Structures are given as C-alpha cells and as structure tokens.
Backbone:
C-alpha cells in the first residue's frame, strides 16, 4: 500500500506501544499515563447533562465555538494569562491537540523549520512532520533543571525557520520555563519574524516558587504568538476533547480554514461543560494541584531511595517527571521500560519517545493516587534491589 511520506515517516508511538504491552500483564502499577485519574467534577458533568436535556447539544456550533464560551475564555485569558484577549481571537478546539495541529498546518509550508526544545511532547514533533515541516530539535539543559538553552536556540535559527514550538510546564520534564527565558525567546522570535506556538496544557499545575508565564502576554508578540490551552488537565476532562487557542485576529480566519476540515467544530456538549467549568467554582483545580504537589513530593522521596538507579530534576510543574537512568541497562530506554514492565510489573514511558536526548530516561506520571506510586516503587525496590 502506498502511504503519504509525511505519514509513513512517523514511527509508532512509544506511549501507545507501552499501553498495549501493559494490557498483556496482570496488575500493572501504572506510571505511564499523562491523564488525570480523577473524574470530571460533578457540576461540570451536570451542565453537560442539562445541555443534552435542553436539546442544546445535538447540532453544530459556530466553527469557532459558542459565543458565550469564547467570551468566558477571553475573560480567563485576560485574568490568568495577562493577555489582552477578546472573543474574536479565540477558537474552541478538539482538545489542545487539534488547536496545535491547526496552528502548525496554518503557518508551516513544506520544508519550513520548526525549533522544538527537547525532550518534548512527541505529538508536537509529529504535528510538524504531518505539515511536511522539518523539526529542529534543540536540547534543554538537563543539569539546570531542563531549562531552555537560549544560545542554542539562537544558533538554530536559519532562513528556513518559521516557528518555535514548546510546552510550558513541560511534558515530559515538568519544567516551568521562567518569564526571563521566555522574554529572550520572544526577542529571538521578533528579530527573525518567527511564530511562537505554545502548549500551556499544564498552566495551573505549578509548584513552589514557579510561576506560569504566557509568552503571548509580552507587548509586541501579538502577531507572533499562537497559544493553546485545554480543559483536559485543568478540570480532568480528558475524554471530553475540548480546548482552545488564542491568536491575532488576522490569523484566526486562516487557522479556521484548517480547523473546519479537521473537526467542523468542537463537540457541543463539551462546550457547555467547558462553560460550566470556567463559570463555576474553581476549588476542584486547587484540589487537583494540591494532590499533584503531594504526589510529586512523595515520588521524589521514593526516587531518593533509588538513587543508585535514577537521578532526577525536581519538576516545578505539570504532573510528570523525567528521571535519568544511571545504570547501564538504561542506555536503551525502550528495552529498559519493557523489562521493567515484564519483570517488575511497573509501566513507565521510555524517554526516547520525547526526542533523541530523552534516551537513558523514563517518564513517570504522578497524576495517580499515592498508593499507585507506593506500589510501583515497592516493586522497583525489589526489582533493582535497595542500596
Ligand atoms: C503537553 C500536552 N499537550 C496536550 C495534551 C493533550 O491535550 P488535549 O487533551 O487537550 O488534546 C497533553 C496530554 O497528555 C499534553 O501532555
């Protein structure tokens, strides 16, 4: 069968492969999924049920989303992200993922280069490939808690560069890129007329003294930033497939040209649920955050007891971390994770899934009950042996 090159060049997803293998084994301790294990809060579900009962959910909405939802999103972007946003600059999308894909498709021509600080969420790399763009991977500085390498990013810019794409807080490293670094990225973008595309899925899950900063809030970046967000993580709404993007109003009609053939509009029932999420009480977000903070601390304590196997950078945000495997067997992260699964009954994601410099690492999720972390680490302690 003849498959388009832009698709056939894309390898199997290591994340989905690990999920498939995990299903073959009984009673696995799962640290490999980046989806919240909590259920969607009741008031959000109720709003969806009401929308169905009231006959509001059966048709399409405007392709850019329900006007009242876009209004609520614009308010949130002004309040929490310091953007000078209005509803006309917002498209409601099928999760952040569809927003990102639409943004990349709208601005990347075949052969255009997109700079991605890595390790990064592998879907971003694939989205660039699907637009026939060229991913240019620039390593983060691991020793400095996976911070951005500004000098390296500058050097990576060529006449073919078109965009810089990253997530903050980061999947998989949990780094919250600080404002001062993002200001330097903005300078590079403005000097070279590059677009900055951000994935801010974990914006509310930041710990300690870290602060989430939206690069689009920098004056002068209005035409050079496309920012994507989601309800998936903030409100534990993974399956509702609902997110949004913000961009300059001149870009919105162009991105909409991609959004429509991909999705027509985001699921309408989910749009009503999202409206309730934004308009309703926000305690659920604080509860999720507090839970992740406590499971992060707990996972770090358990990792400290395995410091003959792993070294790690404490994540400042998200609910993910990216320890380095310091024993020889870790050189091939896929083989390591498969053995850990089959012999130790612990599921983790091989670091190589997040770019070549993810090799010798594994990604662990702490968006799970503490008991799951305990179970996984008890097993790893018996598998690797205590110090
Ligand atoms: C960085 C990042 N962006 C986006 C997503 C998915 O977002 P959505 O469900 O809104 O498409 C994930 C999910 O794991 C993620 O880690």
Residues:
């Amino acid at each position: 069968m003849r498959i388009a090159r832009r698709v056939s060049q894309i390898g199997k997803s290591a994340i989905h492969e690990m999920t498939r293998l995990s299903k073959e084994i009984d009673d696995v301790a799962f640290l490999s999924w980046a989806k919240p294990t909590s259920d969607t809060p009741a008031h959000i579900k109720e709003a969806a049920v009401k929308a169905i009962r009231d006959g509001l959910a059966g048709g399409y909405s405007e392709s850019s989303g329900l006007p009242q939802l876009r209004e609520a999103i614009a308010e949130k972007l002004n309040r929490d992200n310091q953007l000078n946003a209005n509803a006309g600059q917002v498209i409601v999308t099928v999760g952040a993922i569809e927003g990102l894909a639409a943004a990349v498709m709208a601005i990347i021509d075949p052969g255009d280069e997109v700079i991605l600080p890595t390790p990064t969420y592998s879907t971003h790399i694939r989205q660039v490939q699907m637009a026939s763009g060229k991913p240019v991977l620039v390593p983060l500085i691991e020793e400095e808690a996976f911070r951005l390498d500004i000098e390296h990013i500058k050097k990576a810019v060529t006449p073919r560069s078109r965009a810089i794409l990253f997530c903050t807080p980061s999947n998989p490293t949990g780094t919250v890129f600080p404002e001062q670094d993002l200001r330097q990225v903005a300078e590079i973008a403005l000097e070279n007329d590059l677009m900055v595309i951000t994935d801010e899925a974990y914006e509310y899950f930041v710990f300690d003294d870290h602060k989430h900063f939206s690069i689009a809030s920098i004056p002068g970046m209005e035409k050079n930033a496309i920012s994507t967000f989601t309800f998936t993580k903030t409100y534990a709404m993974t399956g509702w497939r609902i997110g949004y993007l913000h961009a300059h109003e001149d870009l919105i009609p162009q991105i909409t040209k991609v959004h429509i053939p991909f999705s027509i509009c985001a699921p309408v029932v989910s749009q009503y649920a999202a409206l309730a999420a934004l308009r309703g009480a926000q305690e659920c977000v604080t509860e999720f955050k507090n839970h992740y903070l406590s499971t992060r601390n707990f996972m770090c304590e358990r990792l400290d007891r395995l410091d003959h196997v792993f070294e790690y950078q404490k994540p400042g945000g998200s609910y993910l971390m990216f320890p380095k495997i310091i024993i020889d067997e870790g050189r091939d992260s896929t083989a390591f994770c498969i053995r850990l699964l089959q012999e130790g009954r612990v599921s983790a994601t091989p670091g190589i899934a997040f770019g070549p410099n993810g090799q010798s690492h594994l990604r662990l999720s702490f968006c799970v009950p503490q008991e799951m972390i305990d179970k996984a680490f008890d097993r790893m302690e018996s598998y690797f042996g205590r110090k």
Observations:
- The longest strand covers residues 161-167.
- The mean pLDDT is 96.
